[in-house]
Design goal:
mainly beta, Acetoacetate decarboxylase-like, 9-stranded mixed β-barrel, globular, ADC_dom_sf, DUF2071
Length: 253
C-alpha cells in the first residue's frame, strides 16, 4: 500500500454534482483503540487498516439522519429522516485514500434500509430507534428487528462539554473521513470508494454517561473490554456524497 494521503479537517475536493445530499445531526462519536491485526480480516479486499500512532480504531457513531435527497432534489422529510447508529472501521486503499468501512448500519426506516442493502450493498439493518435530548445530555437507543442478529441493541447517553477549538491529531483522524470503502458492485471485488464533503466538524468534548451495547460484537468484533479512548459530540453538518469510484479511481457512469 502507498502512503496514505494526509488527514485534513476540510474535504480534499468539493463534490460539484452530488449523488446524495443529507444532514447528519446530533452525532456521538465513541471510539476504542485496537491493534490493526484485530480488524484486518474484516476489511474489503484492497484495503488495510488505517492507523494513527500504530493503532486503529473501532467506532460506534450514533446520530440523526435528516432529509436525504437524491441528485440535487430536495431532501425527503419522512423517509429521509431517521436515527442511525453505525459500527465502523478505518481503512486506506492502494491509492492512499483514507476512508471508513461500515460493519453495521442500524436505521429505523425500512425502505431506506432495503434501498441501502440492495442499491449500495451496505450493511443496513432495520431497528427500533430513538434520539432524545434533555438539557446537555443526548440518549440514543436501538433494538434490531431485521435481518439480525435480532435483538442486538444499544443504549448510549452522552453529556456534552466545551467546544473544541483545535481538535487533536487523533480527533481529526477519527472524524475527518472523506469517503467510504465498499464492494458496491458485487462480490468481494471490485472495491469502490464513495467520497463525501461537508463543512469542518463543530466538535465538543463529551462524557459517556451510559454505554450498554452489543452492536460491536454483533458486527463481528471483540466486545470492548475497556472504556473508550475518545468520546466526542457534534451538532452536525450538511453532507454531499459523490458517485462511487471504481478501483482505478474512475467514477461510475
Amino acid at each position: 500500500m502507498p502512503n496514505p494521503t494526509p488527514v485534513t479537517p476540510d474535504a480534499p475536493a468539493p463534490i460539484r454534482v452530488p449523488l446524495l445530499t443529507q444532514r447528519w445531526l446530533d452525532l456521538a462519536f465513541i471510539h476504542w483503540a485496537v491493534e490493526p491485526a484485530v480488524v484486518a480480516g474484516l476489511l474489503p479486499r484492497g484495503t488495510v487498516p488505517d492507523t494513527h500512532d500504530g493503532l486503529t480504531y473501532v467506532g460506534l457513531v450514533a446520530f440523526r439522519m435528516h432529509r436525504v435527497g437524491w441528485l440535487g432534489l430536495p431532501g425527503v422529510p419522512y423517509l429521509g429522516t431517521f436515527p442511525e447508529t453505525n459500527v465502523r472501521l478505518y481503512s486506506v486503499d492502494a491509492h492512499g485514500r483514507r476512508g471508513v468501512v461500515f460493519r453495521s448500519m442500524d436505521a429505523s426506516r425500512l425502505i431506506p434500509v432495503v434501498m441501502g442493502r440492495l442499491g449500495f450493498r451496505l450493511p443496513y439493518l432495520w431497528s427500533r430507534m430513538s434520539v432524545r435530548r434533555a438539557g446537555d445530555t443526548v440518549t440514543y437507543t436501538s433494538s434490531r428487528r431485521w435481518p439480525g442478529p435480532r435483538g442486538a441493541r444499544s443504549l448510549l447517553t452522552v453529556r456534552t462539554g466545551e467546544r473544541i477549538g483545535e481538535p487533536t491529531g487523533l480527533e481529526h483522524f477519527l472524524t475527518a473521513r472523506w469517503g467510504m470503502h465498499n464492494a458496491f458492485f458485487g462480490g468481494p471485488e471490485p472495491l469502490a470508494y464513495l467520497p463525501n464533503d461537508h463543512p469542518r466538524w463543530p466538535l465538543y468534548r463529551a462524557e459517556l454517561v451510559t454505554c450498554e451495547q452489543d452492536l460491536v460484537s454483533a458486527a463481528g468484533l471483540p466486545a470492548p473490554a475497556d472504556a473508550p479512548v475518545s468520546v466526542l459530540y457534534s451538532p452536525g453538518v450538511p453532507v454531499r456524497l459523490g458517485r462511487p469510484a471504481r478501483p482505478a479511481g474512475i467514477p461510475t457512469p
